[in-house]
Amino acid sequence: MIGLESDIKSTFVCFEDNPVLRKDGKEYVLEGKLYCCVKGYEELYDVFNVVIVVPFNFPNLLPTVFEKDGKIPRNVDCHMNKEGQCCFGTNIVLFDYMHRKNILSFRQFLEQIIIVHFFQVKHFLVKGQWPQKPEEHFTRGLIDSYKRIFNITDNDLRKILSGKFKRYNKCLCKSNRRFDKCHGKYIPVEQIQQDFKTIIAYLQIRR
Length: 207
Ligand SMILES: [Zn+2]
Ligand SMILES: [Zn+2]
Description:
The structure is a single chain. The chain has 207 residues and is of the alpha+beta class. It folds into 2 domains: 4-127, Ubiquitin Conjugating Enzyme (Roll); 138-206. The protein is 37% helix and 16% strand. The protein has helices at 4-9, 91-100, 106-127, 138-149, 154-161, 189-206; strands at residues 15-24, 27-36, 46-55, 64-67. Strands 1-2-3-4 form a 4-stranded antiparallel beta sheet. Helix 4 (138-149) crosses helix 6. The protein binds zinc ion (2 copies). One zinc ion (ZN) binds at residues 79, 87, 89, 135, 137.
């Protein structure tokens, strides 16, 4: 596997001019104008001014992407938050998608997730509909994601939520295997722990 920095540099061809790449703490920050085009939809071609933050331990931590020019309205329908950060759906669904598509490099993440996302938003803005069903997102989506990815019910999830989840626990999918020998092969345990905190807080607010 190639180093992350050269992996990121290999994506410069996807940008107009040369993007700027710098290190900031434990992250790379990539800034530039990204060409967004999907085969068969050339009429929807566009260029988006983006800031992409790539954690040093990608793909264990996922990149965050901001659109700088406000070309995309910052609302739920456009899967953009108020800070201009793109929503790719829940991380757990992303990890599952990356596993199924064998996405290991940042270059693949950029081409198959980020650029495709901008294409979908553009499709929505021009044609009024998403080319695919919008992803599950936010905390409500988080619960749906867990139920779908692990094929479990609300009740199953509630049971698992009590107690700290560790990598050597039984997997959530009821395979009876340890998490790290099952879904934990491609979903970091830290992601599960963080999501559980979010879900618990959300369920308490709703109670
Ligand atoms: Zn979203
Ligand atoms: Zn499993």
